[in-house]
Design brief:
Strand order of the largest sheet of chain A: 2-1-5-3-4
Mean pLDDT of chain B: 96
Radius of gyration of chain A: 12 Å
Helix content of chain A: 10-25%
Structural class of chain A: alpha+beta
Mean pLDDT of chain A: 96
Order of helices and strands of chain A: EEHEHEE
Radius of gyration of chain B: 22 Å
Number of strands of chain A: 5
Number of strands of chain B: 26
Strand content of chain B: 25-35%
Low-confidence stretches of chain B: none
Helix content of chain B: 10-25%
Number of helices of chain A: 2
Shape of chain A: globular
Largest sheet of chain B: 5 strands, parallel
Distance between the termini of chain B: 49 Å
Largest sheet of chain A: 5 strands, mixed
Oligomer: heterodimer
Low-confidence stretches of chain A: none
Distance between the termini of chain A: 31 Å
Strand order of the largest sheet of chain B: 3-2-1-7-19
Largest interface: A-B, 21 and 32 residues
Chain lengths: 107, 414
């Protein structure tokens, strides 16, 4: 099980646990986390599952491919160095804790 | 609960968004979502792609059960609304229950346009709208299936590309002289036609179905208007969608005329009945000097958000979101920002022979839409450029050395 911490724009933190094999976005939606929207259901076109990754407990994230990188230019809140589309991050066994900060707005 | 009551008919992308956004806006009255489907609300786009590829593939749910519980949004599945009493502000359901409302949102979606030719009622002939439909289609498919698809619109091409390796062969029959004739530029049509044909999908244009043949096992062949007989053991009719207006018509709501049709709404998405909105696929709304009806996830979701804001008094002005759309046809990703219906000139950005390019559509000097094939970068910037009304000159669109992002800070004078 992986511990995932969602830090909302107002500072509130919500901690959930997730099984490996699901995407970070799916874990958020399944747990009714506000601030991760995912209108396109993981098709990587809506840019509304945007997160800032602040901690992965040292585990490596899957590398950003070109399509994700380009789609990140479409986020409502401007992207930062640690921006990812959470639909592209698969939670794996090697991650014990993942902490992300949510943008002020997704659309 | 004695607060205001919102009833939403339809729990697809639009209906669910209304409920979610109402709570986000701080609405604390009663929210009831009615769905005529038995399944919990789900993402619809996968139905024409991954869901058809495997009996184990189900689309993601739009929200978890926990979400509806925590947000106190009542979801009533398998319930069809049969009439709206506009004067009394109440909905009557198929079980005879009367549901009073202060605000009613019609998020009824669209229905499949039917193909009326002899033999069309044979077994093995399908439409695709719901998860149930997708399940029936998937159950009939085998590696030997000879699949004929009528209609080379988005659904027809997505299904063809998704199934070409899973079935015996795929033939697409299209009545217009090109694929995606109602939706895309000729450049994009040509590109996709060539790619799909190159991948082994037979596509016939300027061809319609004359009749369907069947035996006791169901459909066996389709005969086209050129007299050619195509063996078929499964037939998908994908000739477009019409607005689901049955309930609105029965209740006396004003409908928009063809070609777009649909439930007529004003710039705040209100129907002719007080307290009643219509959104998503079923709604015909005014947009930049035109009236139209859009069939897309973005339109459903953005209109859902708008109506929630309007109900809670925080909507600023008319509904004016720039439409955008995507269609995954096998490995080809088509993304569209804006609307192409008024474009008269098209400018290519990139090389159509390179496997990725964009086409910028202009109506006079104004950029109205951008179609992108395998160029998500162009697409997301195009959405922002159109939202801002930025000035994008054709020569700038065509210049691969110019970073489109630089144009985001340049606005039109008017």
């Amino acid at each position: 099980m992986i511990e995932v911490i969602f830090c909302a724009d107002d500072g509130t933190e919500t901690v959930i646990t997730a099984e490996p094999g699901v995407s970070l976005m799916d874990a958020a939606i399944d747990n009714a986390i506000e601030g991760v929207v995912g209108d396109c259901g993981g098709s990587m076109t809506c840019a509304t599952c945007h997160v800032f990754v602040t901690d992965t407990g040292g585990a490596a994230l899957p590398p950003i491919e070109t399509a994700e990188d380009e789609t990140l230019d479409g986020t409502a809140t401007p992207r930062q160095q640690n921006s990812r589309l959470s639909c592209q991050i698969e939670l794996t066994d090697s991650m014990s804790t993942v902490r992300v900060v949510l943008p002020k707005s997704q659309w | 609960m004695t607060g205001p009551k919102v009833v939403v008919i339809g729990a697809g992308h639009a209906g669910v968004q209304v409920g979610a956004s109402l709570r986000e806006e701080g609405f604390d009255g009663d929210i009831l979502l009615l769905s005529e489907e038995a399944e919990a609300p789900y993402h619809r786009p996968p139905l024409s792609k991954t869901v058809l590829q495997s009996p184990d593939s189900t689309p993601r749910r739009l929200r978890s059960e926990a979400f509806f519980d925590r947000k106190d949004i009542r979801l009533q599945l398998g319930t069809r609304a049969t009439s709206i009493d506009v004067a009394a502000r109440a909905v009557v359901t198929c079980t005879g229950i009367t549901l009073p409302f202060d605000h009613l949102v019609l998020a009824l979606g669209s229905m499949n346009r039917s193909l009326r030719v002899p033999g069309i009622d044979a077994a093995g002939v399908y439409h695709l709208r719901s998860l149930e439909d997708a399940g029936r289609i998937q159950a009939r498919l085998t590696p030997k299936t000879r699949l004929v698809i009528v209609g080379a619109g988005f659904i027809g091409l997505e299904v063809a590309a998704a199934l070409k390796d899973a079935v015996g062969d795929v033939t697409v029959i299209e009545a217009a002289d090109r694929v995606l004739a109602r939706s895309c530029s000729e450049l994009t049509s040509s590109y996709l036609l060539e790619r799909h044909r190159g991948n082994g999908i037979e596509i016939l244009t300027s061809t319609a179905v004359e009749h369907v043949e069947a035996d006791s096992s169901g459909v066996t062949a389709v005969v086209d208007t050129n007299g050619v007989r195509h063996e078929a053991t499964a037939l998908l009719v994908a000739v477009g969608a019409v607005a689901n207006t049955t309930l609105a018509r029965a209740s006396g709501l004003t409908e928009a005329p063809p070609p777009h049709s649909g439930i007529e709404v004003d710039s705040s998405l209100r129907t002719s009945a007080p307290g009643v909105y219509a959104i998503g696929d079923c709604a015909n709304f005014p947009f930049r000097n035109a009236s139209l009806r859009l069939e897309s996830v973005q339109n459903a979701v953005d209109q859902g958000r708008y109506v929630a804001a309007h109900i809670t008094g925080s909507a600023a002005g008319a509904y004016d979101r720039v439409p955008w759309f995507w269609s995954d046809q096998g490995k080809e990703r088509l993304q569209i920002a804006g609307l192409s219906h008024s474009a008269t000139e098209w400018v290519v950005r990139g090389d159509t022979a390179s496997g990725g390019f964009s086409v910028f559509g202009y109506a006079g000097r104004s950029l109205t839409c951008v179609e992108s094939i395998n160029r998500p970068g162009d697409h997301v910037i195009a959405r922002k450029l159109l939202e801002l009304g930025a000035d994008v000159r054709p020569e700038q669109a065509a210049d691969p050395k110019l970073d489109l992002g630089e144009l985001l800070s340049v606005r039109t004078g008017d």
